[in-house]
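Consider this one:
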Amino acid sequence: MSVAFLRSRHAQILILLLIAVQVIFNFYSSNRFISRLDGDENSSKDESVLISTSGVGVVTNDGMLRSSNISINEDIKIIAFADKHYVALAKVWYERLSSLGYTEHYIVCVDDKSYKKLSQGNYRLIQRYITNPDYDHPVVGFGRQLYSLRLQFTLEMLQNGTHVLVTDVDNIFNRYVPLAGFLEERFDVFHAYEMKYPMNLFQENGFVVCAGHQFIRSNSATISYLRDEVLGDCFKANNCDDQVRYNVALHKLRIHWNTNPFGKDRIKISSNVKENDGLLVEQLTGTASLGDNVKLRIKIWDRDFCWRLSNDLPEKCPSMKKNWVAMPTKNDEHISEKRFNKVGKKIAMFRVWDNICRGGDARR
């Protein structure tokens, strides 16, 4: 192309047109790339943003370790307890875990009616009945009997060499996390954060843990922890409140935490919901001495990995892709079926959770 041509008016116009075409092409290609990330060019939400954000302020990195040849053959079980009133909920819980790929989950039936009903389906069951269940007093009667049994049975499993995840049938599992990966982390006890009960211990320790979800390795340290520090003699009296027992034990052990729970740099929930405001978010790890040179290594999962809050949806939904389990409570306003009883509302909450926090899909 000659210098004279480049200086011509027509050539200048041609160059400007070529530049404009290139700019338009780059803009279109960029937006097509973003649309592919979304999976829907008409979507109002960018899924890449949903994946990388969490309503509690921290996106978890827990649950990423895979099992090795050392841990893959270990005896590991997931257990949740059900009585005759919770059969329908236990089925929902069990089938959700199966759909995620778990094969080591069991329902512990605490009465004959629950066992007979569940025996009609394809469920892995364990019979461990409560003697003379006091159904007329669901909190201080049957509730204490159930919590006593749960602690005692957990101890027996540890003594038999079984590593155990103890959870509740109303806990909502959202992805498959290989439990053998927890053995790779080398902690003995993994707890999840609760909200603020018992309040006195929340004020003294800066947090409390949840009795309805923990993974416990089977070894001499955890057996001593459950038998001597947590269970004590409450099983004999059939009067255990395991939520209190775990937190009292952690308080008495005077654990050396690797991070100060009261540190000013700790991330905490900010909320108008009183039960949630001021709750810790980030994980905690620490050690405690059990005597005779026995050390108990403890980890508390972060609140994005194990989500436990009162209502606060959808604002405080955890990260969509990385949250493992949710333990929502006090969400009646989101449940359209107002006539449901307590168990019916818990079952409905599985659907509500998926709709509000998981884009309507339990498998996302």
